[in-house]
């Protein structure tokens, strides 16, 4: 993709790149602009690619997954789930998705994860997410060519899961984030943005009976992207990370070769909601968004100008189902709902998985509206689980 872009309006380019990505998330758009020109939304964050569901399994289930049974992708949604790995002591996965093909070519997001189960209680993991915006041809105000660059962002994680009991585990990630939107300083000396963050997660699961049918009921919780603000070069302006709160449950039931799993998640962005300003720039409703990270996170549950009703509108709901046959073939579907006053990004998802020996291939497909730039989005993934090396 070659896009011609003047250098001067850096804030415009930053906003544009974030808007394009942010449309897909369980959150709101950047700088009040939606990709489908729907109602203004009012939560601004940097690096929203961190909220994109890269793993095809959860993507096929409406982005639900905080309480799902673990696989090699678990650290992307709930690291604590790695403590309950059903098979294999070492695993890795790779996923890839052409992103927002309806708007531009060349954009993509990919991820690489791995885990190593040290012993019964301890598991370590690592993950890399990479978002490419494609080739952009920069020019100055006189449209003189300044070169072609590939704006990109990535996040590198190191994770740990601790099993505290037969049915309870905690987990966490330490994350380094790099956002290189304009050639790493090659244009206007604007340097890449950098930040660090942590995730904290928990998972509780128990065996139950439903009408005589054995089942596993799980509850999961995840706090992600809790960290420093993003600063680009020497700019005095800083941007909140997309701190996120997710809670959900999953029910896996059945005996014999066929099993069914249902999942339900609730999701809320923990970043300041922008207030309403008058013509002079004074706040007439809501709270000042210029605050510390802790104040922004805790205040995000009570700062919406529309009060509690608007806070509820900021909660996204993901529901999904999976049916497995002989642990070889998996069929999945799901639905993501977001309030139309906030995102207008609700959609249906489908997918499948095929396991052969230690390898699993996953695929997901997003069915969006005609106006949605996310329609027809596909994700591919391959994961492998192996016995522990001795």
Largest sheet: 14 strands, antiparallel, barrel
The ordered string of helix (H) and strand (E) elements is: EHHEEEEEEEEEEEEEEEHHEEEEE
Task: Tell me the strand percentage band.
Answer: over 45%
Mean pLDDT reading: 84
Structure description:
This protein has 390 residues and is mostly beta strands. The chain has one domain: Porin (Beta Barrel), CATH 2.40.160. 8% of the residues lie in helices and 47% in strands. The protein has 4 helices and 21 strands. It has helices at residues 10-22, 56-60, 293-299, 307-313; strands at 3-6, 90-98, 108-117, 122-132, 136-139, 145-149, 152-165, 168-180, 193-210, 213-227, 230-232, 238-239, 244-253, 258-269, 276-277, 283-285, 315-325, 329-337, 347-356, 359-367, 378-386. The strands form 3 sheets. Strands 2-3-4-7-8-9-10-13-14-17-18-19-20-21 form a 14-stranded antiparallel barrel. Mean pLDDT is 84; it is low at 1-40.
Task: Chart the SSEs and their pairings.
Layout: E1 3-6, H1 10-22, H2 56-60, E2 90-98, E3 108-117, E4 122-132, E5 136-139, E6 145-149, E7 152-165, E8 168-180, E9 193-210, E10 213-227, E11 230-232, E12 238-239, E13 244-253, E14 258-269, E15 276-277, E16 283-285, H3 293-299, H4 307-313, E17 315-325, E18 329-337, E19 347-356, E20 359-367, E21 378-386
Parallel strand pairs: 1-5
Antiparallel strand pairs: 2-3, 2-21, 3-4, 4-7, 5-6, 7-8, 8-9, 9-10, 9-11, 10-13, 11-12, 13-14, 14-17, 15-16, 17-18, 18-19, 19-20, 20-21
